[in-house]
Design goal:
The protein is mostly helical. The chain contains two helices and no strands.
């Protein structure tokens, strides 16, 4: 009984993987020919936005460097302790 169930499960899995389509479905569905409506107009970023983004990147880089210094200091202190 277990062998029969395993074979049935394997057959269902294979059919699923091969993508057996229903009887009335075509294998190559044609996309609709209508065009999508135009989306919202996105304005270019202002100088204030670019300056703020640049500042955020600089602050992030400084934070990563400081974290590296702290981790390095903790490692060297732990090695000296031994």
């Amino acid at each position: 009984m277990a062998v029969r169930a395993t074979k049935l499960l394997l057959a269902v899995f294979v059919v699923f993987l091969l993508g057996a389509a229903p009887a009335g479905a075509s294998t190559l569905a044609q996309p609709p020919t209508t065009t999508a409506p135009a989306g919202p107009v996105i304005d270019a970023p202002s100088e204030a936005d670019t300056a703020k983004s640049r500042n955020n990147l600089i602050i992030g880089a400084v934070a990563v460097v400081l974290l590296g210094i702290v981790v390095y200091g903790n490692r060297t202190r732990a090695k000296k302790k031994k």
